[in-house]
Amino acid sequence: MSAAGRVVLVTGAASGIGRAVAQAFAEAGDRVVVADLDGTAAGRVAAELGALALPLDVTDPEAVAAGLERVAGELGPVEVLVNNAGIVAGGGSLVDLPIEIFDRVVAVNLRGTFTVTKVAAAQMIEAARGGCIVNISSIGARQPTAGLGHYEATKAGVDALTRTGAIELAGHGIRVNGVAPGPVHTPMTAGLMTDPAARGAWESRIPLGRIATPGDITPLVLFLASPQAGHITGTVVQVDGGQLLV
């Protein structure tokens, strides 16, 4: 169990991995902020978890600054940040992908992670109590899949921010780590799950033979944010059923 009562901000927390992570922290006794672009869904999940709902566009620096100021005013400064908000927004080869899709995915996945980290880390530094940041990456940062280069490039960037953040923030007692799932059964992958051929193709790449659920991801996120991981920083750990081995 994590230290009780910490202020934990999870982005993209209205569904999928983010929702599962938010629920796990809430069940551990932490004060959770359910941040999501979909404010209605964030409110619904927050009500279910006894958490604070925060409508948040991670691509808007002013909105991020105002949102985290609100969190600090209502709950206190953020002590644990989980950068989970992310999109794929479609697929396509590098020569065919519309630049608008590329820009949107970069804005949410990479710029959004940077923007929220920048503001949350500043709160942690000012509070002088240390803190933890966990970035949700992807094994796609290390294993390419044709048609997903735009998404995978952003996750490689998230891994780089994770390592740089670990170095720059260590002196303030702030640890920064990443979790890199393989394919996970979430609303983002719903189309994959309902297509037997597509699902079978993915499962054939996974030695353990199945696509992960959000519940496979949450224990590692909680561990990396816990005192038990107090000497771990700058790591990106895959949770992929062995996919990177083949």
Give the class-level CATH name.
Alpha Beta
Radius of gyration: 17 Å
Total helical segments: 8
Give the terminus-to-terminus CA distance. Answer: 34 Å
| Structural class by secondary-structure content | alpha/beta
Q: Widest sheet: strand order? A: 3-2-1-4-5-6-7
Describe the structure in brief:
The protein is an alpha/beta fold and 246 residues long. The chain is 45% helix and 15% strand. It is globular, with a radius of gyration of 17 Å.
Describe the SSE topology.
Layout: E1 7-11, H1 16-27, E2 31-36, H2 39-49, E3 52-55, H3 61-74, E4 80-83, H4 99-127, E5 131-136, H5 149-169, E6 174-181, H6 190-194, H7 196-203, H8 214-224, E7 236-239
Parallel strand pairs: 1-2, 1-4, 2-3, 4-5, 5-6, 6-7
Helix pairs in contact: 1-8, 3-4, 4-5
Keywords: Oxidoreductase
Family: Belongs to the short-chain dehydrogenases/reductases (SDR) family.
Protein name: Short-chain dehydrogenase/reductase SDR
Describe the structure using short key phrases.
oxidoreductase activity, acting on the CH-OH group of donors, NAD or NADP as acceptor; 7-stranded parallel β-sheet; 7 strands; Short-chain dehydrogenase/reductase SDR; SDR_fam; NAD(P)-bd_dom_sf; Rossmann fold; alpha/beta; oxidoreductase; 246 residues; 45% helix; 8 helices
